[in-house]
What does this fold into?
Amino acid sequence: MKMILLGPPGVGKGTQAQILSREYRIPQISTGDILRSAIQAGSELGKRANQYMSKGELVPDEIMLGLIRERLFGDNPPEGYILDGFPRTLVQAEALNQLFAENKTRLDIVLLLDADEELILKRLSSRRVCRKCKAVYNLLTQPPAVDGICDKCGGPLYQRDDDKIETIQNRLAVYRRQTEPLINFYKSINLLKTVDSSGNPREVHQNIMKQLGGN
Ligand code: AMP
It folds into this structure.
């Protein structure tokens, strides 16, 4: 199964990708996580990416395409996966299609996670992430048992720099301008299914399974 989770920042793509990854036993490939690890490691990629990420801007397409080509079609290419946060521009989506064609494979489905902006703003500003295992929490709806500590691995929780309110607003504007056009792109090639993502993670997961079951 090769799927893309599409939707605005904070809609729950990461949370749902983690659940689906366990259920289908396929990796979650989050370009945001890959870039954040590169920043933490202090690599050249991390340094370049951070100039954009810290402002809520998109990292240039050629960097992202190099990274995804390596991850999906390099050594040991995974058979199935959940793409979380890629593609984010039409250039990326078209290049990805091209890569699929060249490698004689194809995408199974694109799930558009949908929720209104007010809810998204609330979710993003209360999001906390485990620095070690990347598990995602929400102080309002899904707090950890012990303040600041990951339930799953005991790692420290932190707030992403780009989850601060001014950056969030920019990320939403960037989404509307650069990523929303992908909805029509994937609709036009009959891969898009929309999932109501305004509920809690379990409800959203059930909505996803309905779409996958009917596929
Ligand atoms: P995310 O964790 O998916 O919200 O991504 C965090 C940040 O990483 C984004 O705001 C972008 O700066 C960068 N990023 C992640 N994926 C991409 C992508 N496919 N294209 C461009 N920038 C990306």
Remarks:
- The pocket of adenosine monophosphate is lined by residues 9, 31-32, 35, 52-53, 56-59, 64, 85-88, 92, 162, 171 (CB under 6 Å).
- The radius of gyration is 17 Å.
- The chain has nine helices and eight strands.
